[in-house]
Amino acid sequence: MTDLSKRSMLKLATLSALGAAALVGCSKTEAPPLPAPAPAPVAAPAPKPEPLKIAFAYVGPVGDGGWTFAHDNGRKAIEKEFGDKVVTSYVEKVPESADAERVMRDMVAQGNKLIFGTTFGYMEPMLKVAADNPGVKFEHATGYKNAENMRAYDSRTYEGAYMAGVIAGKMTKTNTLGVVGSIPIPEVVRNINSFTLGAQSVNPKIKTKVVWVGDWFNPPKETEAATSLINGGADVLMQNTDSPAVLKTAESMGKRAFGWDSDMTAYGPKAHLGSAVINWAPYYISTVREVLENKWKTSPTKIWWGVKEGAIDFVSVAADVPDDAKKKLDEVKAGLKDGSFSIWKGPIVSNTGKVVLAKDKVADDEFLGGINFYVKGVEGKVPGGDKK
Predict the structure, then answer these.
(1) Are 189 and 159 in contact, with CB atoms under 8 Å apart?
(2) Are 197 and 165 in contact (CB under 8 A)?
(3) pLDDT above 80: residue 28
(4) What is the per-residue pLDDT across 188-234, written as a single tens digit (0 to 9) for each?
(5) Do 342 and 322 sit in the same domain of this protein?
(6) C-alpha separations of 262 from 114, 156, 235, 314, 361 in Å
(7) Which domain holds residue 235?
(8) Helices 98-109 and 123-132 meet at what angle, rounded to 10?
(9) Are residues 106 and 182 in the same domain?
(10) Counting CB atoms within 10 angstroms of each CB, which of 165, 180, 211, 214 has the fewest?
(11) Is residue 118 one of the residues assigned to a domain?
(12) Is residue 321 part of a domain?
């Protein structure tokens, strides 16, 4: 082989080796990295639900120490229970007249979806407003008419009146009790009668005098009525009015009396024998929860809660009340709580001698809701009541 041939073959071999090396180098080249995945979008927080707006219409001032004060305590209990899930407001001293309708319509216009009307005289105005605002829930205290978006509720105040009567019957020295009445509707007449029945359960000699003032909250008239009763021989007083004026009058005249709707001890500590109180909180909290959970519905009859449901109690019994009276009170309270005791159980006779409830018969709510007579022992006639 010639030198030229050898050089050609070496050159070819060298070129082949270089080509192979280039191919090997190319085979080791890495692919460009894949792009990093985009971060998952963060979900926006769900919008916070708007709070339920709740309004109360009060017939008296929140500082009346009685009826309206008790309702406002119930309103505050709602705020404490539900926090920022609710917003509450109230209008006080709303008359039982056409003005009540105006106030409730204004409450609707302000965006309230639950409205409480807290006195009997609001019933017809509330029915009108409810009919025009089907998206709002209405609650009417002490009434008896319901609609698709309105229901009536009440507390069995007559249970508190009966318990007060048990104490009064033991504490009276003249056997004459006095009651300052507000408006002669069945609720109030029922309370007067129950007070008398409670007193007669421990003292059959009891008689009860009544003076009507024609108003729920009118301290001057309440004072005048209490004074008249005391001058007429009554030494223990109860009222179905909303201020502590009756208790204050008893204190100033050296007689005894009870707190009504709220604990009124502070208004007349020497005169005070105990207070028949209403606790609206259980019902109000239950109702608001129903609305928040879309479970609210109307009722064919009014919802009526008492001692059994924690809505009625008798508190702050005076130290000088005898032990046998306290024992009797405890027995009555326990019986009302477990259902073993009925206040309105026959025989019960009106003050005209008419048997209104036969022996061993227990009054139902329909009977209790239509009482328009005085029981035996109550003097006089119910204004506009039973003439028989």
Answers:
(1) no
(2) yes
(3) no
(4) 999 999 999 999 999 999 999 999 999 999 999 999 999 999 999 99
(5) yes
(6) 25, 14, 22, 10, 32
(7) 158-278+312-368
(8) 40
(9) no
(10) 214
(11) yes
(12) yes
